[in-house]
Amino acid sequence: MSDGFMKSADVFSDVSEFILSYLSGMSSAEKYSMLIIISAAVLFIILERLFPYNKGQEVLREGFFDDLALYTIAQSYILSIIIFGYIINFIDSTTGISRLKLFADIPIWIQLVIFTITHDIYIYWMHRWQHSNKWLWRIHEAHHSPKKVDWLSGSRSHALEILINQTVEFAPIILLGSPPEVIAYKGVISAIWGMYIHSNIDVRTGWLQKIINGPEMHRWHHSTGKGRNRNFATKLAIWDWIWGTAFLPQNKPDEYGLKTYFPEHYFSQTFFAFRSFKKKKSSELVND
Which of 170, 168, 154 is nearest to 219 (CA)? Predict the structure, then answer.
């Protein structure tokens, strides 16, 4: 056998051992959650083929590898260690709040409702702020860079944006003493809903779109037209309708992405957020 073949076999063996070790360390809730998320991804791919919002859009579109391997898998894995192992652990060990177990006796489904709604309100206002603050826009523009929007494109978010939003999302769950299952199930809700609102599926939900967010509103938010500075809600569209930022015309967006230059690959996109501001332009925000 050639040296190249042996090296490839060793790499494959190391990767296989890492995956098996990672899976063996997961709880049942985490394993079920991962299975549900993967199954949902496959379902969305099928539905995008059967009922496309924008016809002719390819599955393996530009940036697919970066979005899947680097943003969804690698970045998520590393940030989960930082968020749970360091940031939240530091807050909890310093304050000792989780030992009070304030939410320990509350039914899990009620906790999921509470955490989903409260975090969704936070995300709405944080998202809206990102579109009006030049510093926050820098860590949000990567999310708007895909020129083809689908079930996977929503995973393209700058590491600092994820670090902030997921710390805010999961810290209360841990600090309030919720069972570990709540973290896993809340993660499933966020992952699947995120895939859904970005999916290239031609959904028409009628009056439900006033409450439940979906691709028919959120895809406008990723357009280069007027809707790009509207529809800030993530899970519940009702916040856009209440606070006057809803945008839902009868037609469909002509194009998606940014109007300005943005790098093509993960590492360039990550470091691009730290470029200097041009003196002639006080802001690079998305304005109508």
Answer: 154
